[in-house]
Structures are given as structure tokens and as C-alpha cells.
Design brief:
Distance between the termini: 25 Å
Helix content: over 70%
Number of helices: 3
Number of strands: 0
Mean pLDDT: 86
Structural class: mainly alpha
Largest sheet: none
Shape: elongated
Length: 91
């Protein structure tokens, strides 16, 4: 089961990595929106929410769900490794 989770975690991370990077960079820029012109802010917001692609308006939902799944599977994998360390007596 852990091998399946690890495989899914690896592939989902690989497939969605570029979208996570785009979301992170545009989100970082939006944090400092006072320093950018309003028309550029609108463009960055549309990229951040994937509305710029039109057809992919709800794609941001899939990116968020992928990030949630990666977070949960990462926690499961971490706990599994940590639990094995505790069982073997290594700290």
C-alpha cells in the first residue's frame, strides 16, 4: 500500500509541478500588488486562477486538489518512515 501511495505521490507531483510553480509565483506577486500597475495585476490574477485559459477556468480546483492529495500522501509517507524508525529503535 505504501508503495502505491509513493508512486501516486511521485507522479502527481511530477505532472502538477509546473502548475504549482505558476500558482506560487503569481501568488507571491499578488501579495505585493501595491507595487504593480492595476492592469498587470488583473493579468497576474487571471493567470493565478487559470481564468486566462478560458476553457480551464476550473483547472485551479484540480491544482488545489492535487496539492491537497500530495500533502496528505506526503504526511502518510513521513509517518510511515518515522514509525519504522521508532520500531527499529533508531532516533
Amino acid at each position: 500500500m505504501i508503495n502505491l501511495i509513493r508512486t501516486i505521490h511521485r507522479w502527481v507531483g511530477f505532472i502538477f509541478a509546473i502548475f504549482f510553480i505558476i500558482t506560487a509565483i503569481t501568488g507571491f506577486i499578488l501579495v505585493f500588488r501595491k507595487n504593480i500597475p492595476e492592469n498587470i495585476e488583473d493579468i497576474i490574477y487571471n493567470i493565478h486562477t487559470y481564468e486566462v485559459l478560458g476553457v480551464f477556468k476550473y483547472f485551479a480546483l484540480f491544482v488545489a486538489l492535487a496539492l491537497l492529495g500530495l500533502s496528505i500522501s506526503g504526511i502518510i509517507l513521513f509517518i510511515n518512515i518515522y514509525w519504522k524508525k521508532i520500531k527499529s529503535g533508531k532516533n
